[in-house]
Amino acid sequence: MHDEKGRTSGLFHLHVGRFRLAATSPLVMGVVNVTPDSFSDGGRFFDRNSALSHARRLIEDGADIVDIGGESSRPGALPVSEEEELERILPVLRGLEGIEKPISVDTRRPAVMREALKAGASMINDIDALTAPGALEAVAASDCAVCLMHKKGEPATMQREPHYDDVVREILDFLKSRLDACERAGIARERIVIDPGFGFGKTLEHNLTLLRNLSKLAGLGTPVLVGWSRKSSLGRITGRPAGERLPASLAMALLSLQAGATILRVHDVKETRDVIEVWKAYRA
Ligand code: 7PJ
After folding, report:
1. Ligand 1: which of 58, 67, 106, 256 to mutate, judged by most atoms within 8 Å of the beta carbon?
2. Are 30 and 266 in contact, with CB atoms under 8 Å apart?
3. Under 8 Å CB-to-CB from 144, ≥6 apart: which residues?
4. Angle, helix 82-95 to helix 110-118, in steps of 10 degrees
5. Which of the four, 181, 191, 192, 226, has the lowest number of CB atoms within 10 Å?
6. Does the pTM exceed 0.85?
7. C-alpha span between 78 and 91 (Å, rounded)
8. Residue nearest to atom 15 of ligand 1 (CA)
9. How many angstroms does the Cα of residue 227 sit away from the middle of ligand 1?
């Protein structure tokens, strides 16, 4: 089946800097937080060497992309300065130079985007969906991929009674408008993935409604990335702390694949790969 732009549905090539990812199978993005306060593994990978060895470990475990973040966006997190964010990220990027997998940088700052791309990053994962002044231009000037994520409010306060009249409609409209903005800025569709932003200004019910309607996002013809790994919604469901949310995360990974997700952003790469194998066997 082909859509109006000639893409084969269910199959795509993602253009990620010098890499081409053929998603004949779902992809895994492994998370490396270089922050002292990320909610689930904050502090563990805060020094450069542990961040580096963790990134390498994720690649050995089968990560297709490694996502490095220097600013915690967990609910209630406080912002870090641009200098601090760069000091966290750049040494890790330099240490991963020449690695055979694309490196993504989780940032909302155009200056950090530009420096990260110079230092070898192939993808920008932006929880602000390139809305900061200069962000579209920073990405357009390179050949990196970009993840456009929806969020409502700011991390410090976003989980205080978030409200939507129609959560699915609102997120679809937002992501469509960001896809249009990218197109106007000259960022090719083959470089873009979209993400509903589970937990970013959303209650458990909002997240579940979005998951049930994920095929509508996938219907935009752009690969859908999802992040459920260890999130507090899973704590709400199971009553378990972040360190005990792996089974719940894997259940959500499977449901997300079945609903049309193409990229799973996770902390536990090896286990998530097994979920993908199970899903592929079921689908075959
Ligand atoms: C997400 C993210 C997500 C994208 C975080 C955590 C909280 N980026 N960054 N999607 N979540 N694209 O790692 O659990 O869901 S930070």
Report:
1. 106
2. yes
3. 16, 17, 117, 121, 122, 123, 124, 191
4. 20
5. 181
6. yes
7. 22
8. 227
9. 6
- Check if the beta carbon of residue 122 is closer than 8 Å to that of residue 104: yes
- The first and second tokens of residue 64, run together, are 């297709």
**Within a 10 A sphere around the Cβ of 158, how many other Cβ atoms?**
18
Burial status of residue 217 (CB atoms within 10 A of its CB: 0-12, 13-18, 19 or more): buried
Cα(67)–Cα(33) distance, rounded to whole angstroms? 8
Q: pLDDT per position in the chain (284 positions), as tens?
A: 334 443 444 567 899 999 999 878 999 999 999 987 555 555 555 678 889 999 999 999 999 999 999 998 777 777 789 999 999 999 999 999 999 999 999 999 999 999 999 999 999 999 999 999 999 999 999 999 999 999 998 888 888 888 999 999 999 999 999 999 999 999 999 999 999 999 999 999 999 999 999 999 999 999 999 999 999 999 999 999 999 999 999 999 999 999 999 999 999 999 999 999 999 999 99
Tokens of 222: 């752009």
What's the CA-to-centroid distance between 200 and ligand 1, angstroms?
Answer: 8
* Residue 265 a catalytic site member: yes
Question: What is the 283 CA–ligand 1 centroid distance (Å)?
Answer: 27
Query: What is residue 11's predicted lDDT score, i.e. its pLDDT?
Result: 64
Measured distance CA(203)–CA(118) in Å, rounded: 37
Instruction: Report long-range pairs for 1-5 (Cβ below 8 Å, ≥24 apart).
Output: 3/221, 5/189, 5/221
